[in-house]
Amino acid sequence: MLALSLSACLLGFANGMRHALEPDHLAAVSTLVAGERSAGASVRYAAAWGAGHAAMLVVAGGALALLRTDLPDVASDGLELVVAVVLIALGVRGLAQAARGGRSAGEVFAHAHGDQTHAHAGARDHLHVSKWTVARLPFVVGLVHGLAGSGALAALVASHAGPSAFAVGFIAIYAVGAAVGMATLAGVLGWPLARLARAPRFVPVLVGVSAIASLVVGIAWATPILVRFAG
User: What is the pTM (predicted TM-score) of this model?
Assistant: First the structure.
């Protein structure tokens, strides 16, 4: 039983890392990190996406697994359509940034949280969790992606896993694997992209290409869903 549980956990972690490589996830995160001037900044953005994605998978997917229920097809399609709309919105946002010459990343700026004012580099729009800063936009995009994928994941796990606690644990490990996979990928790809982003003339190109990729994936994602709704 222990060997079976360990094997299932490793499988869940590996599948989670593979899940991070799916086109919609890559399109969303690449649009957010394009133009960053350091690999560390890219990893932080990807980690924020992974945190939101993992949190929603555990909460929504875990609840569905515990209830041993599936999302209706209409609800599942609706959530997938929301993901497509987010990808399209990120693409439009990226094209607007490219038209402005890309974005300035890595600068240190002063800002306030309640009565406290401090200065550090990173995303201007962020949350503080203890000593960590979490970029708000990637976190929210991750939440949306996690919500759209939670139904299918819960149905898959619930159909194969025995005890409910094991099913929820498997989903949690899967979610962590996806977060680690995306952060690792951002670190690997972030270094060469960051070197290019240090040259101002390349920043609009990087941001524009990632924005177009996000638009293409979003439109391709939305089209069959809209066809089903129209039928």
Answer: 0.76
